[in-house]
Amino acid sequence: MLLIASGKGGVGKSSITTNLSIALAQRGHKVAVVDADVWGFSIPRMLGVDHTPTIIDEMIVPPEAHGVRCISMGFFVEEDQPVIWRGPMLHKALEQFLTDVFWDEPDFLLVDLPPGTGDIALSIAQFLPRAELYVVTTPQPAAQKVAQRAAFMAEKVNIEVKGVIENMSWFTGDDGKRYELFGSGGGAELAERLGVRFVGQVPLVTALRQGSDDGNPIVAVDPESEAALAIRALAEVIDLELAPTRRYNAGLKLLG
């Protein structure tokens, strides 16, 4: 179970979650994603899911795209409808996402957390105490400092911080040169400070952003592109070198 977190919005966390999940599926794994960003749900759009969940014997069967199953608040409210919920309702919704959904024993369950350290992150920590957290940041110091708070929150609730992923690391110009628009070294520095693995870097690419907006994830539609290769490299490191132990919380079994 991989929790994907960031300290602030705008660092491309959900885009990383979406494409990383597909990259893991391309490696032959059964993969599922929980969109735990109840207020800012975006995984269905980014994944390109074109149908809603079905109900069979009172169980929710999640839709699938590109070999990845997913569940999200986006399937139950209109895309432009705000979700104005407080702690107890959020807690219950997340519990249902984990226990009332037929996940079919995934090899990897990725949870796309909302930015920050609020109620949802605390509920997920309670539901999935043996999960492992990956922090997504960008190179600049401001993003790095905020991302560090998400890692510290995880440590306080005994969630293992497994690694740091740096997004928007560079832009490759028409001249073939790399331009570090947001500085350099932030992800590696954060990983060193936390004492965890620096998993890798993902470049700033228009097609990655456009694909997320259009429901055409770059790892699926252009797997040999610069950004897709970078994300597939992340998946390889996580799969082979940082492989999570296949563990479930006995008190909250994922149904399969």
TrEMBL record:
* An annotated GO BP: iron-sulfur cluster assembly
Cross-referenced Pfam families, in alphabetical order?
ParA (PF10609)
Coiled-coil segments on the chain, per record: none
For this UniProt record, the keywords arranged alphabetically read as follows: ATP-binding, Iron, Iron-sulfur, Metal-binding, Nucleotide-binding
Record's protein name: Unannotated protein
GO molecular function annotations of the record: 4 iron, 4 sulfur cluster binding; ATP binding; ATP-dependent FeS chaperone activity; metal ion binding
Q: Which organism is it from?
A: freshwater metagenome
UniProt-listed InterPro entries: Mrp/NBP35_ATP-bd, NUBPL-like, P-loop_NTPase, YlxH/NBP35
